[in-house]
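Hey,
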Amino acid sequence: MYREVITLDTKGEMDIVDITDEVEKVIERSGIKDGIAHIFCPGSTGAITTIEYEDGLLFDLPAALEKIAPRGAYYKHEERWHDGNGHSHVRASIIGCDITVPFENRRLMTGTWQQIVFIECDVRARKRRIIVSVLE
């Protein structure tokens, strides 16, 4: 097994960052030819998934999340911390904090239009750590 940490500076709520190339660079440095890459975000307001990274979906995904977990709705979480990010926690929980992707010949086995993305669900800009574990 091989592990590296990718660091990101996000712009805040619903910043969607394509990390596909960074994950492939980690795989390349691992020296492992075939296996799986596990991509994980520590924290409860960040999410990892795949998407076709294009302008339409970069608009559509946040719009859909706004319908599912609206910013202005009541969240009991606010009673404890008063930090305005109850919806951020719900959105991140729905999407998930990790993904596992197989690779072959040091290339991710994603679809032609499929990229790995980090989604900042928190209401403010953050410095994020993304842990990439490469397993043979």
